[in-house]
Amino acid sequence: MTHQTVGHAATGDQGGPLADCPDSALVPPGHEPRCPIDITLAALSGRWTPLVVREFLRRGQATYSELSAALPALSDKVLSDRLAQLTSAGVIERHRTPGWPPRVRYILTSQGRALEPVVRSMWEWGTARRDALG
Predict the structure, then answer these.
(1) What is each CA distance from 90 to 18, 102, 118, in whole angstroms?
(2) Under 8 Å CB-to-CB from 4, ≥6 apart: which residues?
(3) How do strand 92-97 and strand 61-63 relate by DSSP bridges?
(4) Cα–Cα distance between 44 and 90 in angstroms, integer?
(5) Interval 60-96: pLDDT, tens
């Protein structure tokens, strides 16, 4: 016996704020995202990335040592990977000061600042969820 999927009529507002992401904009993993939600998720992908962004939203800029102290659960490799990812996504910029020892400061970009409503929404949803669960 085979299973047959029964279609259901779509519900909700089809012309709402998320309507500009048609199925044709969805791409398989490994390809450049075109859907606005996929683009945002690509910039914030990986465990801990939103928390690193949160630290930049709090501080505006930080050194590796400051981030490591603020996020002690992250291994050095994970923090380094997240900083490289956020730099390539244009969320932060890496500034190196010449001299010895070399000093590196990461600075939040305007694109990074634009993520504040996203991170704030995640905070608010998580707070409501935590309170609902007791």
Answers:
(1) 24, 22, 16
(2) none
(3) unpaired
(4) 11
(5) 999 999 999 999 999 999 999 999 999 999 999 999 9
